[in-house]
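Dissemination and training. As part of the outreach component of the grant, students in the summer workshop were shown how a complex can be specified as a set of sequence lines and then modelled as a single object. The example used during the hands-on session is reproduced here so that future cohorts can follow it. Participants entered these lines:
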Amino acid sequence: MKTFFKVLGNLFKRPITTKYPFEKTFIPDDYRGLIGFDENLCIWCRRCEMACPPQAIVFSQDADGKQTYHYNRAVCIFCSECVRSCPKEGAIYQTPEPAKCALKEENINNGWNVLYEEALKSRAVYAAEKKRLAAEKAASLKTGDKKN
Amino acid sequence: MGKRYEIPLGAQHISLLEPLHFKFTTENEKIIDTVANVYYVHRGIEQACCSKFKFRQVSFVVGRVCGLCSISHTTAYSQVAEKLVKIEIPRRAKYLRMLVIELDRIHSHLLCLSHVAENSGFEALFMKTMQYREFSMELLEAICGNRIQYDFSIVGGVARDLKPQVGMQILERLKIFKLQLDELVDIYQNNWTLSLKNKGAGAITKEDAMRLNVVGPFARAAGLAMDVRNETEDLLPWKEVGFEMITDTAGDVHARNMVRLRELYVSMRMIENIINGLPESAIITETKAFPDGEAVIRLEAPRGELFYYAKGNKTQILERLKIKAPTFSNVSAMVEAFKGNEYGSVPAIIASYDPCLSCTSR
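and obtained this result:
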């Protein structure tokens, strides 16, 4: 009899589950979400890139030495190791915003692999160019010394 | 003597959470022999940890070994790496690690209990247990920022501090959970149908448990007082926060359920003590040293003793990392405990072992 009344009572109870896409689920204030980046504060030391376990951050460099920050939310594990490694506070930070699903058009995995390779290559090219210029300068200084 | 049958179960089966394969030899309905195969989810994590990742990043990699005992793996690795770089972590970090490990134990034990209920054919209790389990997931999300992969322990301490309002929230939710747990204990202990399925099933004697080197709740249900929290005191001060050993004598599925449920009370008490007596200090010790030498760590994961071995060679990348998961120690006893049981009670027995194959085969 007790069970019977319990069943009747349960008929008029609200469900425990939430209707997820229509209702908001529980998200705490300091949820580990997307990584944000402030270009104006960054000192371009690349420590976040070195610290990142899944290599979701990479910096590319163009011919005049300007670096660009690339971040892949599908590779990121939101561990905030980059935030801890950053020497300049506020340059890289964690937002409480959950990552959105990737679309097919974004080509987020293969596109990222290509981008990552290109970024490393662009940095190598810049470094080689810098080395060559430094060697030229040194050579010209040496010849200048001899002339004097 | 009846006719003998060979019945395979797994690696894909409706009662299994993870790929585990058993081959039973039965005489009519009675199991007389079992062969187990556990290496279906080998991912080569140990090799990746020793070749691709720097030693500070490895704590995030080993957190992905297993979803349920993620914090046990990260903490064990952090401790072994701290031994290699020879640092002592702050007291507050130790307490926070214990807090998350105990909360993790609550949700892992409740998951196991719910699956025992489901595999015994008690779907409603499965739903109820899972519903009550939700509070621990939300609390872990509030503490660590994520429901599953906590990434809480890092080499040198913990990643984030406990906010006072989250601490208050934990105490409030535990008060509610205590009543719910009383209700669950009543059902698991006294329900007639569940007892019919669980009492006497999958029993193992204390001598067999000792001989086969069983760990975790499996061993404690058989009467072996085996808990790493009782033995080591140097890395995490378990006894200081009120650890108590829970044992049972029967060694069957029912005894395992009761050990898990009673351990939840101990875990809750420990969490309350930790939050009320949280020491004030930094949460991380910074160091620039590289790992050198060899070290070994034992830690009590929800399923039993977790063992980590690491070897460093003064570079960023470790030379060797060895993980021995609790389920690996239990496989031989799992095979043994099936003998003499009816084939129909196999799903409930498997669930009561709480096997974690991702940990075992890494």
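The mean pLDDT of chain B is 85. Students were then asked to discuss how this feature might be tested experimentally.
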